[in-house]
Amino acid sequence: MTVPLRPVSAVNALADALRRRVLSGEIPPATPLPEQELSTLYGVARPTVREALAVLVHEGLLRRERHRSAQVVEVTVADLDDLMFVRRPLEDLMAVTLAGRRVEEADAALGRMAALPADAPWSEMVAEHMALHQALVVAVGSPRLERLYTSLAAETRLGLVRLRTVYPDREVLVAEHRELLDAIGEGSPEEARRAVAAHLDHGWGE
């Protein structure tokens, strides 16, 4: 039995390439992305570039104003502090609900994070980091909590780009997440809450 693979369109391929560059910090915040330059660089037509940029605008990674090139969204430290102000009570609810329970999907994301080679693009760390936290929130079983958390995804991903300077040794980031999952999976509600609060209390490499 064979399982057919869906071909990747040029639009999706370009969106993936640009997303990786943004989330690895290769394209800094506020950097303009002129369509013609991208068309020449990647050897695709401008309509393809336009559609790929629209995908990233929809995801919240880029912003676009009328008659101007798309730009990478700039998230300030003040923005990120406010983001954590909102995330803390959401993840506190998660901690109380999941205390004493292992979440298989979160453990799997941690395993993938730990298996990444040292020279893997930072965007892959961002993806597994997001997958781990999202798995915990989904495991709570509250559609409204999940929607609220998902609405913060773009800013969270852009914030995680900054952490590449905070964690030059990626094993430290992996170890912190292992400790977090152990505290949630094996601890009391209060222990899980303290672990989540400590995990979210970090700087942004400013």
Quick overview:
Residues 8-75 form the HTH gntR-type domain. With 206 residues, the chain is mostly helical. The chain has helices at residues 10-23, 35-42, 46-59, 77-98, 104-115, 122-140, 143-150, 153-166, 170-186, 189-199; strands spanning 32-33, 62-63, 70-72.
Could you explain how this protein is built, in words?
This protein has 206 residues and is mostly helical. The chain is 67% helix and 3% strand. It is built from ten helices and three strands; from the N terminus they run H-E-H-H-E-E-H-H-H-H-H-H-H. It has a three-stranded antiparallel β-sheet. It is elongated. The termini are far apart. The mean pLDDT is 92.
Percentage of residues in helical conformation: 55-70%
Can you tell me the residue ranges where pLDDT is under 50 for at least 5 consecutive residues?
A: none
Order of helices and strands: HEHHEEHHHHHHH
Determine the structural class based on helices, strands and strand pairing: mainly alpha
Largest sheet: 3 strands, antiparallel
Question: What's the total helix number?
Answer: 10
Give the N-terminus to C-terminus distance in angstroms. Answer: 53 Å
Mean pLDDT: 92
State Rg: 18 Å
The gross shape turns out to be: elongated
Strand order of the largest sheet: 1-3-2
The proportion of residues in beta strands is under 5%
Number of β-strand runs: 3
Pfam family, one: FCD
InterPro entries: GntR_C, TF_FadR/GntR_C, Tscrpt_reg_HTH_GntR, WH-like_DNA-bd_sf, WH_DNA-bd_sf
Organism: Streptosporangium jomthongense
Protein name: GntR family transcriptional regulator
